[in-house]
Fold this sequence. Notes:
By secondary structure, this protein is mainly α. Helices cover 82% and strands 0% of the residues. It is built from 5 helices and no strands.
Amino acid sequence: MNDGPHSLPGAMRGRFDRLGVLISGLCMVHCVAGLFLIGVLGLGGGVLLNPAIHRFGLVAAFIVGMFTIGAGALRHGHRLPLALGTTGLALMAAAIASEHGTGEALLTICGVLLVASAHIVNMRRTC
Length: 127
């Protein structure tokens, strides 16, 4: 019996890729809303800039990405989703290690765009 993540039915893998895109989108909304609320309105700094939110987001993105993108790469053999996802997660990790501000937001936004792109390419390659 094959119990690895690549043995899941295609519909299940697709759901997890969609979940990855959703998490990436929520992360981007968080970054843009945070910049807007803090920069323009001066609100929400304590909540939106809480490092725990960023760490949780990175862990969630890493788990879902590793599960779906990694399993997809093993199944279909295409390395593009793996390269995009790994680069995106590295940018997100660099954002956590940097000071809060515009640079952190840009690293995070670029990272989530790459991770979301990896999930989309993975879905297209798997189907």
